[in-house]
């Protein structure tokens, strides 16, 4: 099972006299009533081991180190980004409602709840796909799904951009899988940029070869803001764009689509992976938005994150924007996986 790859490492530092980071309180637009299973206490990386039928959309506590066991690359130490309230530089890391020098509040940030301080299941889906595509397997022993996944997730020689990276696990795996360049980005106010991304890149890559580290970088990026130096220098520069669980802010869908169109190279593809913890409606709304912005959905399907087929492969079903009678627990075990390619741009 995907989530069994994670386990918590001993804590190096536990802050005192600071409030705990809250679990995300997403509004699930598909649910008719409030779920009574929103945990105040995260069991973190041990939940999948204790309750294998439960599928948490996020893992770890802010600042915690998780061991990600990779059959291809060995054990990786992944630091979860800190939460602003537990940082000694809290004023520099506020992820929502950050005040400007003139006393006003940044309205975009005020509406944002970045939730960078977790490792998201969608990021693990991308990491697993890239890793398996890079694992040598004889063609004659591969199933059709495995062959399709190899074509879908192969990053060898590709230039990769990760949006809303958080802990940046996909970026680390893409670098190990021989992408030509890897760029991890997050919102300028994200706590992920305050140490976690740099640690995860340097700790897990520097031990291997300096060449791997040199092809990886991180940059702040606010979706839809395309006139800064990073954006101007990298228009159309990336052949693969990773967007994993970046879609719960409906107000940011157009900005996210603009960013994707701006950075995507001709012939490039965008990987969209999303759980349904916010409901299907908001995920479906994003797909409607990207179609309006000239993207074409090349492929789209749903994957079961808990069960496997008899031959150990993935269980898939067709994507549906609405599933009547789908309960919250069943909804949590599925994610949507899609690839987008460029159509006519509004830019």
UniProtKB/TrEMBL annotation:
Any GO CC annotation of this UniProt entry: cytoplasm
Pfam families linked: Methyltransf_16
Stretch list, region Disordered: 1-39
Segments of skewed composition (Basic residues): 1-10
Annotated GO MF terms: S-adenosylmethionine-dependent methyltransferase activity
Domain of life the protein comes from: Eukaryota
PANTHER family cross-referenced by the UniProt entry: HEPATOCELLULAR CARCINOMA-ASSOCIATED ANTIGEN, N-METHYLTRANSFERASE, PUTATIVE (AFU_ORTHOLOGUE AFUA_1G17750)-RELATED
UniProt name for this protein: Nicotinamide N-methyltransferase
């Amino acid at each position: 099972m995907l989530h069994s790859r994670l386990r918590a490492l001993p804590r190096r530092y536990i802050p005192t006299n600071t409030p705990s980071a809250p679990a995300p309180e997403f509004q699930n637009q598909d649910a008719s009533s409030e779920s009574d299973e929103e945990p105040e206490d995260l069991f973190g990386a041990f939940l999948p081991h204790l309750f294998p039928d439960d599928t948490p959309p996020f893992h770890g506590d802010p600042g915690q180190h998780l061991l990600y066991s990779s059959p291809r690359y060995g054990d990786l130490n992944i630091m979860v980004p800190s939460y602003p309230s537990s940082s000694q530089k809290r004023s520099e890391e506020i992820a929502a409602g950050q005040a400007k020098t003139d006393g006003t509040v940044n309205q975009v940030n005020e509406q944002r709840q970045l939730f960078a301080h977790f490792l998201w299941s969608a990021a693990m889906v991308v990491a697993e796909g890239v890793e398996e595509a890079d694992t040598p397997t004889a063609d004659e022993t591969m199933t059709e799904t495995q062959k399709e996944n190899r074509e879908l997730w192969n990053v060898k020689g590709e230039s990769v951009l990760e949006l809303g990276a958080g802990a940046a696990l996909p970026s680390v795996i893409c670098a190990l899988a021989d992408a030509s360049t890897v760029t991890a980005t997050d919102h300028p106010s994200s706590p992920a940029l305050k140490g976690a991304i740099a640690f995860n890149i340097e700790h897990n890559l520097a031990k291997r070869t300096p060449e791997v580290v040199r092809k990886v970088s991180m940059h702040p990026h606010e979706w839809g803001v395309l006139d800064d130096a990073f954006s101007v220098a990298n228009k159309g520069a990336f052949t693969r764009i990773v967007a994993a669980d970046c879609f719960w802010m409906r107000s940011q869908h157009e900005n996210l689509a603009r960013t994707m169109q701006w950075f995507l190279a001709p012939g490039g593809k965008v990987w969209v992976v999303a759980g349904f913890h916010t409901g299907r409606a908001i995920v479906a709304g994003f797909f409607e938005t990207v179609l309006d912005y000239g993207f074409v959905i090349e492929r789209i399907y749903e994957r079961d994150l808990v069960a496997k087929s008899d031959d150990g492969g993935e269980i898939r079903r067709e994507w549906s924007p609405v599933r009547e009678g789908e309960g919250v627990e069943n909804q949590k075990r599925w994610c949507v996986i899609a690839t987008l390619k460029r159509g006519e741009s509004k830019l």
